[in-house]
Amino acid sequence: MDPRSLTPALRVLRLCLHLLTAGLLALVVVRALTGRTDEPAAAVVTAAAAMGAVYAAGPLIPAVRSTRLGAACWLAVLGAVWAVLLALSPDGLWLAFPLYFLLVHLLPARWGVPAVAVAAGAAIASYVGHGAPLNAGAFIGPLIGAAVAVATVLGYQALYRESESRRRLIDELIATRAELAAAERTAGTLAERERLAREIHDTLAQGLSSIQLLLRAAGRDLPAGSPAADHIEQARATAQDNLAEARRFVRALSPPDLDHGSLAGALERLCATAPGVSARFTTSGTPLALPTPYEVALLRIAQSALGNTVRHAHARRAEITLSFMETSVALDVVDDGDGFDPERAVTGDGVGSGDGGFGLPAMRARVRALGGTFTVESAPGQGTAVAVTLPLPAGGPA
């Protein structure tokens, strides 16, 4: 395991494991050198030193830290040296306890638990093989140590996984909150731009247009070339220039999708980029230049309706139709998805309540502000049809 990925608790446990192993190896060497056992001291010291060297080399080898195969190979070599030490000295069985932790920690549970059982059996066999008196402790001690090691390591791993899962969840929540905040700021900016565009169009632009018409009518009633007629013509020209400027403001505040083309082009691009659904755009009638508020409202309604189709309807196909008629313009968005109960969605009791009723109130408010009609036809399992009709303003777009 990469040391940089260790938690503080795991670093402490690893240090304790190193100290325990070093202490037990020292105990084996001291007992062999002081003659407290009947085993050959030189061979025991050599085997203990070899085991210490193999153990110390493990954390320094990158493959042991980063791969299961490298760890398994290192444990196999370490186990082989330990087996030699067991054969030489009964004191080697004490090293089974740190070895238990290594086996469970570095190997998958399906391999680590059987390996611990084998190590416990080898420790018991070594004790019996060296002629030590048989007693319950000779069997119970290694088995209890193995059980404690397995329970400790597996328990810690479970807690670590849960902690990591919570950390990832918190990171996702923080990222989601940041995305939502950014989306809200963007939505607020777009909404404010659209509001300003509507205000300029409905007040300033309309007022300047009326002033221009009145001045033009007044100019007709005055003799041509008179000072009053010249002043009125200058006032009318100024009103016309300011009206053009107001219209430029409205266009600048309109959605970016309308910056590089017509409403039809924006709707066609919307269908072409819709994810997960086959969307088609068609037009009918003779295309007309629409007022900017009309284009903004129709585009936003189409985006919202198609977005609902993608997110909620599980539809395979969708179609957006823009129809130009003599006195009105109509937008229809139809899909073959799951459908829903429009009444329950609006009241927040049914499908889509988590999304504000699929945005239906916002769509209806846009249409109502322009004096149009808005209808939704849908039923569970029967798809959805959203229809918008806006009356064309007299005298063309303003």
How would you describe the overall organization of this protein?
With about 400 residues, the chain is an alpha+beta fold. The chain has twelve helices and five strands. Helix 2 runs antiparallel to helix 4. The longest helix has about 80 residues, at about 135-220. The two termini are about 70 Å apart. The relative contact order is 0.05. It catalyses: ATP + protein L-histidine = ADP + protein N-phospho-L-histidine.
Write a short abstract of this structure.
With 398 residues, the chain is an alpha+beta fold. The chain is built from 12 helices and 5 strands.
What structural keywords apply?
single chain; about 400 residues; alpha+beta; Heat Shock Protein 90; 5-stranded mixed β-sheet; 5 strands; about 65% helix; rod-shaped; disordered N terminus; EC 2.7.13.3; metal ion binding; Sig_transdc_His_kin_sub3_dim/P
Strand content: 5-15%
Radius of gyration, rounded? 41 Å
Top CATH class of the domain at 260-398: Alpha Beta
Going by CATH, the homologous superfamily of the domain at 260-398 would be Histidine kinase-like ATPase, C-terminal domain
Give, in order, the helices and strands.
HHHHHHHHHEHEEHHEE
- Structural class computed from helices and strand pairing: alpha+beta
The average pLDDT value, as a whole number, equals 79
Task: Assign the CATH architecture of the domain at 260-398.
Answer: 2-Layer Sandwich
End-to-end C-alpha gap = 70 Å
